[in-house]
Design brief:
The chain has 342 residues and is an alpha/beta fold. The protein has eleven helices and ten strands. Bound molecules: 5'-O-[(R)-(carboxyoxy)(hydroxy)phosphoryl]adenosine (KG4) and zinc ion (ZN).
Length: 342
């Protein structure tokens, strides 16, 4: 069964073709980074318009790569939420339109479920149950995953998401948008031991996170230190990254311990962070646990994770008509049990 996956929840247009027998056959992606860079963040209306422009050419590109025709697609999957309403609607409309034209069923996929299941695309794939650390621009969550569709939320951020903290701190360092990868790059050259930034809630006894204070600590430090020189900026970046990575690592270990599990799966854009990967690999190996990461290109938003999630959820396809609504705010643990309200 050939599944077309469409992702348009934010600033990446992603399309992919996943075959339940042959695996991932085609992937096409367009990042809107340049489009939004001059505004310092994602402009929702511009994002939607760009998805409109890109979606069909990218679909053609993915089909060409896969050596398949549109008629070969048996199921169309799109990101139904959470995300920017207008951006989601572009993916939903194109999916529904293709579904009607081809007389194929259309399914909506939860964006975080896409991220959550994407590490299963790598080999060896983790077995259930496992702990998932979901770290994206909009979410920071620890989940217990017992199977496809069986997710229990263990803890989450009370304020900024980890990716958001990276992005906002990058803005303080004038690194532009999107800041996360730029900050991580700068951190590579800095001394992480120079500034002792707080590790918020690291010993709170819960699996929740809080990152907004960390950003304020960076701001205070930048104001007091003479931070104009390149070395100091790199040291601030490295020290900030160390703080956030320490907290994510400690809480992940606490979650493994609390649930009595020894498999950790990392998903979402911040999962591309090299320092986080290294620290999690070290920490889990010290306690005899294993950590799984999606391939780097599948960490950030993409169509493959949407097609793949649909393959796992509907391995024999589904009967039925096109679906259309989108859910800009949508809780994954609750979504596993019921259909969201609009
Ligand atoms: O999952 P994602 O592509 O989009 C959302 O669903 O939010 O995650 C994007 C987030 C952004 O905040 C970005 O700055 C962050 O992931 N990010 C990184 C790195 N690459 C992407 N943060 C730290 N280090 C990186 N290498
Ligand atoms: Zn994402």
């Amino acid at each position: 069964m050939l599944i077309l996956g469409i992702e348009t929840s934010c600033d990446e247009t992603g399309v992919a073709l996943y075959d339940t027998r042959d695996g991932l056959l085609g992937e096409a992606l367009h990042s809107q980074t340049e489009l939004h860079a001059r505004y310092g963040g994602v402009v929702p209306e511009l994002a939607s318009r760009d998805h409109v422009r890109r979606l069909l050419p990218l679909t053609r590109e993915a089909l060409e790569q896969a050596g398949r025709r549109l008629e070969d697609v048996s199921l169309i999957a799109f990101t139904q939420g959470p995300g920017l309403a207008g951006a989601l609607l572009v993916g939903a409309s194109v999916a529904a339109g293709l579904g009607l034209a081809l007389e194929r069923p259309v399914v909506g996929i939860h964006h975080l479920e896409g991220h959550l299941l994407s590490p299963l695309l790598s080999q060896p794939a983790p077995e259930f149950p496992f702990i998932a650390l979901l770290v994206s621009g909009g979410h920071t969550q620890l989940m217990r995953v017992d199977g496809v569709g069986r997710y229990a939320l263990l803890g989450e951020t009370l304020d900024d998401a980890a990716g958001e903290a990276f992005d906002k701190t990058a803005t303080l360092l004038n690194l532009g948008y999107p800041g996360g990868p730029a900050l991580a790059n700068l951190a590579e050259t800095g001394n992480a031991g120079r500034f002792d930034f707080p590790r918020p809630m690291i010993a709170s006894g819960t699996l929740d996170f809080s990152f907004s204070g960390l950003k304020t600590a960076v701001l205070t430090r930048l104001r007091s230190a003479n931070a104009d020189d390149a070395a100091t900026r790199a040291d601030v970046a490295a020290s900030f990254q160390a703080a956030i990575v320490d907290v994510l690592t400690a809480k992940s270990l606490q979650a493994l311990d609390r649930e009595g599990l020894d498999r950790l799966v990392v998903a979402g854009g911040v999962g591309a962070n090299r320092q986080l990967r290294e620290e999690l690999a070290d920490a889990t190996s010290r306690i005899g646990a294993k950590v799984f990461f999606p391939p780097l290109r599948l960490c950030t938003d993409n169509g493959a994770m949407i097609a793949f999630a649909a393959a796992l959820k509907f391995p024999r396809g589904i009967e039925g008509a096109a679906s259309f609504p989108v859910f800009p705010r949508w809780d994954l643990a609750a979504a596993a049990q019921s259909t969201p309200r609009r």
